[in-house]
Amino acid sequence: MVNQMTKLNWAGFSKKSPEERIAFLENHQLLNPEEQEALAQHQVLSLEIANQMAENVIGTHSLPLALVPDFLIDGKNYQVTFVTEEPSVVAAASFAAKIIKRSGGFQTRVHDRKMIGQVALFDVPDKEQAVQNILQKSASLLSLANEAHPSIVKRGGGAREVKAEIKDNFIIVYLTVDTQEAMGANMVNTMMEALAPTLEEVSGGQSLMAILSNYATESLVTAECAVDLRFLSRKQEEAHYLARKMELASQLAQIDPYRASTHNKGIFNGIDALVMATGNDWRAIEAGCHAYACQDGQYRGLSTWTFDEAEHCLRGSLTLPMPIATKGGSIGLNPTVQIAHDLLGHPSARELASIITSVGLAQNFAALKALTSTGIQAGHMKLQAKSLALLAGARETELGQLVPQLLHAKHLNLETAQAILQDLRNHKN
Ligand code: HMG
Predict the structure, then answer these.
(1) Mutation probe of ligand 1 site: the residue of 10, 20, 86, 94 with most atoms within 8 A of C-beta
(2) SS3 110
(3) Residue nearest to atom 38 of ligand 1 (CA)
(4) Which architecture does CATH list for 115-213?
(5) pTM score, two decimals?
(6) pLDDT tens, residue by residue, 258-278
(7) Going by CA atoms, what residue is nearest to atom 23 of ligand 1?
(8) Does the beta carbon of 260 sit less than 6 angstroms from any atom of ligand 1?
(9) What is the dihedral angle through the alpha carbons of 380, 384, 387, 391, rounded to the nearest 10 degrees?
């Protein structure tokens, strides 16, 4: 496999056919021959494996698998796969990845990587006393949790801390667990269920439920970048104006939940696409991040952008709970997921969390840049015009003339594309 420092020339990758793209990846040792064959022959998830993954299976459901080349993150290049049905998401991410790479790439920080489980106790006769009793028994509760899942202790992980809080009628006991490379839902749930009877005994109350929390505040990751203003516009004044508008767009998402929701949706265009491609639980990631977006009681934009006039750049930052896995669940079962991990160079769970957060920031950058400059429809229309032109039979060399004419035509459809193409060819002859 090509290592992450190798420089590859991706120019024209988007203009190739899917077959040519697969061949390019194999020629550059990004795919092995079996993976190349599997993609070329559409040998993806078999019914047999699908039937092991869910219940009452009657088929498999396909979505486009796309490649976004060259995300430069913490000094390494990553080839990122997206599973998405939405046009322009991959184009936007590729565009942003390229600009941010030229501006020095992303820098990330994994604050911590632990999961949280909770047992909610009710009908506790003396809550203050019960909290004290529980905390005094922390060491034996940690041992009990670890005995319920000894394999994680062997791998260097395990239960780390017990906390207890009174919230209204409940005592809630929180356990933090180092789950190593796994997302750890099963592991944490097993531990919490093992603790529940002892917690009932110690508190004198009843356990209402014992379950993992998706609000993974002990798995925060920050991605940052500083986009050189020359990539916003070659004209300095225009670049400054656009940087200011992008900063204002970021502020708008902090104060207006209607905008914040759409702002964050744009971030998840990339995050969900990569979380799905890598076989992770995107509902868990969405739930945790949206809870984090309203940590102070108001739903806010997850990313921030600031115009650094002195350093002549636009600074982006995104912090998210990212309890992502590289082992466990369906990751080892689905062959396409294996290809995604191969193309990424088999990152660790921490590294993958950094990649996913960086992808979210890149996706947000592209959306905000489009929104505050040309508007979002221009990019969509341009992509649509390009695919209509290709569908009409245009050659690569004809796109330069055909696409602008098509964009100015009254009706953006296949018939118009065919008519303009015919006209162009007639005039050439
Ligand atoms: P452009 O400047 O017209 O692009 O932008 P270009 O044709 O000059 O190409 C520049 C580069 O973009 C290319 O470089 C590619 O890297 C990439 P090249 O390879 O040519 O050297 N690129 C593509 N990559 C793959 N396939 C393509 C392709 N086209 C360009 N077909 C672009 C065009 C679409 C990139 C830009 O308009 C854009 O980023 N728009 C934003 C699109 C977006 O965010 N879409 C998501 C759906 S909208 C939404 O759901 C979210 C939103 O509501 C969130 C929010 O409100 O915050 C917007």
Answers:
(1) 94
(2) strand
(3) 92
(4) 2-Layer Sandwich (3.30)
(5) 0.92
(6) 999 999 999 999 999 999 999
(7) 91
(8) no
(9) 170
